[in-house]
Amino acid sequence: MKYKLIIFDLDGTLLNTLDDLADSLNTALAHFSFPKRSLPEVRHFLGNGMQRLVEQSVPDGTSADTTAEVLTVFKQYYKEHCSDRTKPYDGIYELLTALKENGCLMAVVSNKGDFAVQILCEQYFPGVFDAVAGEKAGIRKKPAPDTVNHVLAQLDIDRTDTVYIGDSEVDIETAQNAHMNCLSVDWGFRTREELLQAGATVILSQPSDILSNILSI
Predict the structure, then answer these.
(1) What are phi and psi of 144, to 5 degrees?
(2) One MF term in GO for this entry (predicted)?
C-alpha cells in the first residue's frame, strides 16, 4: 500500500447527500417565505459548510440575524431527515472493505456539521472509520488543515503516509494546505473540468480506481 491512512471527504465522495441537503435547505427557506433553490444551485453551493450554504442561498440583502435563523431551521430539519434519500455511491462499500482488508486506517474529514457527520457515518459505515470529524465551533474548517492535522495527531500518522480524497476544489486546497497528496473524484458535486481548473492532478471516475491507485507502486 502507498499509504497508511486514507482520509475521505463525505458529501459527494462517499455519500450522495444532495437531495436531502436540498430538501432541508428549501424547507428552511420556505419557512421564511424565501424562494427555493434548484438542485444545480445547491450542488454548486456545497463544500464550504452549512453556514456558507445558507448564506449563499438566502436572498441578497438578508440580514445576518435572519440568516442565522434560517441556518437554525435548516440544521433542525436536516438532523431529522439527513438520511431520507442519501445513499453511498456505487462501489463505495466494496472500496472501504478492500482498504480495511489491506490494513489501511481510514478517516472522514468533512465541512458538514459534526452532528450530521457522526449520524451518517454511524448509520452507513458503522465501525469502518478510525476517526470521524465534521465542522465544530472553534476549529477552522476546510480548506484550513486544522481538522486534518487533528486526525493525524489522533491516529499518530505522518502526513507523508496519508492521502486525502475528495470531490471539490475545497478538498484540493485542503490537501495542499496539509502538505499531503490528493486524489480527486468526479462522481460527486464538481465536474472533471471544474476539478482541473482547481488544480487537480489525479482525477478518478469510480471507487475501484481509488484502490488501484493506492495499491500501485
Answers:
(1) -60, 150
(2) phosphoglycolate phosphatase activity
Convert the pLDDT of each residue in 123-163 to its tens digit: 999 999 999 999 998 999 999 999 999 999 999 999 999 99
Mean pLDDT of the chain: 96
- Spatial distance between the Cα atoms of 184 and 198, rounded to a whole number of angstroms: 10
DSSP letters of 157-183? Answer: --GGGEEEEESSHHHHHHHHHTT-EEE
Q: Nearest Cα to 152, choosing from 174, 136, 169?
A: 174
* pTM summary value: 0.94
What's the pLDDT score for residue 216? Answer: 64
Sheet containing 181-185, strands listed edge to edge, beginning at the edge strand earlier in sequence: 131-135, 105-113, 5-8, 162-166, 181-185, 203-204
Residue 217 has what pLDDT? 43
Residues 75 and 98 in one domain: no
Predicted local confidence at residue 215, as pLDDT: 82
d(CA 104, CA 178): 19
Q: How many residues does the chain have?
A: 217
How many structural domains comprise the chain?
Answer: 2
Residue 59 CA to chain centroid, in angstroms?
A: 25
pLDDT in tens, 193-210: 999 999 999 999 999 999
CB 102 within 8 A of CB 95: no
Range of the domain at 177: 5-16+87-215
What are the C-alpha distances in Å from 173 to residues 16, 56, 100, 145, 192? 21, 20, 27, 9, 16
For residues 24 and 108, membership in a common domain is answered with: no
We report the CATH number of the domain holding residue 73 as 1.10.150.240
